[in-house]
Amino acid sequence: MEMNWFLLGIGITAAVILLFRDWRVTVLALLVNYMSIALFLAEQQFITPDLDLFGLALSTLVVMQVITGFAVTLILAITALTFSREYGLESLDEFGLSELRRAARAAQRQQATQPFQWGDYVLPFWSGVLALMASLTLPQLYPIAPSVASDFAWYWLGLTGLLTIATASDLLKVGLGLLLCASAINLIYTAVVSMPTASGLNVMPLGMLSVFNIFLALAIAYLSGLLYGRLKTLELGELYRR
Amino acid sequence: MLYLLLIFFPITMAASTFVLRRYTNLVLAGALGTMVTQLLIAIQIPLDDPTRLLGVTLMLSTLNQVFLLIFLALGAFAFVAAWNIPHGENFVPIALLTLGQTCAVLLLQDPFITTLLLALTSLTAVLAIVDLPVGASNLVSARAIAAALKYLILMVVAAMLMYIAFVLSDIFRPGEIFDVVSPARFILALLTVSFGLRLAIVPFHTWLTDLVDYAEPLVAALIITLLNTTSLVVLILVFQSFPTLLFESVEVLWLMRVGALVSVLVSGMLAIAPASLRRTVAYLVLYNCGMVFYGLMSLSPVGLSGAIFGALNQTLAVMLLFISLALLERPDGRSPGVVRRDLLRRWPVAGAGLLVSSLALLGLPPLNGALSHMLIYQAAADHGWLELLILVLGTVLAGLGLARMASERLLGPSEELEVAEPLMLGETELDRPAARKLAPEPRSTAVLTIMLLVLCLGIGLYPQPILATIDQAIQNLAFIRVL
C-alpha cells in the first residue's frame, strides 16, 4: 500500500494542534496543515489543474488555499508576537490601571505555580485516540467523499477541531480548533461537490471559504488580544473565574 | 446593478464611518442617510426576477423584500436610538457591515454562500459584543469577552453543521436508504441543530442569555432582530430548495415540534424564576423564539403564516424592548447601586415600552404578536390538544415571569416622595438644599419609543395587509403545498 504523505501531514499536524499548548508549535502546525490540505487536494485531482508551477500541475484554487493558509497563520503569529504590547492605557482611569496591575500579578503567580505537568496532556491524548478510531471507522460506515483518504481527512480534521475546542485551556487554541473545523468543511466541499454526481465546484463558495477563514482568524486574534490586554493571560480558567 | 448597490453601499459606508467613528453625530447622520438610500434601492428592485453574477443567482422574493424593508427600517430606528443610548465606538460601522451582509443573504440563492455569509455576520457581531464607547475609561468586562467567545464558537459550529448538511444535500438522491441512518434524516438532523443554535432554541440558547446580560442593549437588539430572523428566512429557503428532505422524514418531523415545545415550556419556566431585569427579558425573547420555531416546524400553511408573522413582530418588539431597556438603565440622577422598583414612574415612556414589547412577545391582544400567536395556537391544535396545552402553559409561565419582573422593577411606588419636614430651630428655607429635579427621558429616543409602540399597536389592530402579503408569499412555497 502506497503511503499518502499529504494525508499523513494533515493527520500529524492536526494531532499536534490537539496535543500541544505552546502557540509557536501549534501555529506552525496550522501552517503545515493548510499546506498539506492544499497539496492533498491537488494530488487527488478534485480540481482541474490550470497552472504549471515548477513542473507541478496545480489549480488556481489550490494556490488560493495556500495563500489563505499563509494569511491565517500570519495573522495569528503576529497577534501572538505582539501580546506584550500595551494599547489604550492613556484613556484608562486609576481603577482600570490598578485592575490591570492586579491581573498581571495574578497571571505571573499562575505561571510560577503551574509547572509542566504530564497530566495536562492526558485528556487531549485520549480524545485524539478516540478521534483517530472514529475517523478510521466512519469512512467505512458512512462514506461521503469519493475516496477513503479524503473521507478520513475531513472526519479527522472535523473531530480533532471539535476536540481541540472541547479540551482547550486557552483562547488561541480554541481558535485553532475552529480553524481546523473550517478546514474540514473546505475539504469535504471540494471533494464532494466536484464529484460527477454533484452540482460541480463554484468559485464563489471557495472564495467565500477563504474569506471566512481569514475573518475567523481576525476574530480570534482580536479576542485573544483583548483577553490578554485585560487579564494578561489567555487561560480560559481565568476568564471564567471572574 | 441595484443588487450590488444594495450589498456594497452599506459596506463602503461602514468603512467610511469606521474612519470617522470618533465624530458620533456625523457618523450617525451618515448611517441614517444610508438606511434611507437602502430603503429606496430595495423598493426599486424587481421582485422574483433572477440575475446571474459570477455563477451565483441573485433574486428578491416577496417574502425577502418584506424582511429586507423591516430590517432597514429597524436599522434606521437603531441609529436614531444610538443618539442617546450608550453604544460602542464601532457600533455604526459594525451595524452597517452586518446590514450589508444581511442584504446579501436575502438576495443570494446559493445555500453554500448563504451559510458562509451567515457565519460572517456572526463574526462581525462578535466585534460589537466586546465594543466599548469612544474614550471609555474602563476596561472591557471579562464576562463580555466570555459571551463573545461563546457566541463565536457556537456560530462557527452551527455554520460547520449547516455546510456539511448542504454538501450532503448536493449528492443526496431521494429514496436512498443506507443501512444505518437515512441520509434525509441525517441532513435534517444536522440542519435542525445548526438552526437551533442560530435561533437560540433550548438547549442551544445560552449564548442569547449571555449576550443580553453582558452586551450593550443595542448590540443585543441588532443581533436578535437581524441575525436570528435572517436565519429563520434562510431555513424557509432551505425547505423550499430541498423539499425532499421533509418528504422523506415525515415520520420524524414531530421530533422537531417537540424540540420547539420544550423550548417554549423551559423558557417560560426560566422566566418565572428570580432573575435580573436583563435575564428575564432574555427569557421572554427565548420564549418567542420557541413559538416562532414551533410555527415553522408545524409545516402547515397556518403555522408558517404564524411563524413568519411572528418573526416580523419579534423584530419590532425586540427593538422596542431593548431601546426601552437601554433607557431604563441610564443613570437617572438618583444614587447609583440601588435596585429601583419604580422604573415606570421614573421613566414612563421607557417603562411603557418595556411592558408593551414584553406583552407583544407574549401575544397579548391588541398588540402585534396576538394574531401570530393565534395562528401558531391554531397550528398546534391541528396536531392535538396536548401540543396546544403545552404552548398555552408556556405562555402562561412566561406571562407570570413578566408579571414578576413588572412588580419587582416597574410598578413599585415612587421612591421620590419627599416628606415635608418642619423647619428645625434656627433653620430657614434658604438653609435647605434645593429640591432635586430629575432629568426627563431624552426627547428623540422617547419619540422613537412611542413610534415603535404605536407601530406594535397599529399592526395588532390592523394586521390584514401584512398577513395578506405573507399568505401570498406562502402560496409560492412548494414544500408547504405538497405537505
From TrEMBL, chain A:
The chain crosses the membrane at residues 6-21, 28-47, 53-83, 121-141, 153-169, 176-195, 207-228. It comes from the Bacteria. Keywords: Membrane, Transmembrane, Transmembrane helix. This is Uncharacterized protein.
TrEMBL record, chain B:
This is NADH:quinone oxidoreductase/Mrp antiporter transmembrane domain-containing protein. Its main location: membrane. One of its GO terms (molecular function) is oxidoreductase activity. It comes from Candidatus Viridilinea mediisalina. Keywords: Cell membrane, Membrane, Oxidoreductase, Transmembrane, Transmembrane helix. Pfam families: Proton_antipo_M. One of its GO terms (cellular component) is plasma membrane. It comes from the Bacteria. It is found in: Cell membrane; Membrane. Coiled coil: none annotated. Residues 141-397 form the NADH:quinone oxidoreductase/Mrp antiporter transmembrane domain. The chain crosses the membrane at residues 24-45, 66-85, 112-132, 144-166, 186-206, 218-242, 254-273, 280-297, 303-327, 347-364, 384-403, 445-462. It is a multi-pass membrane protein.
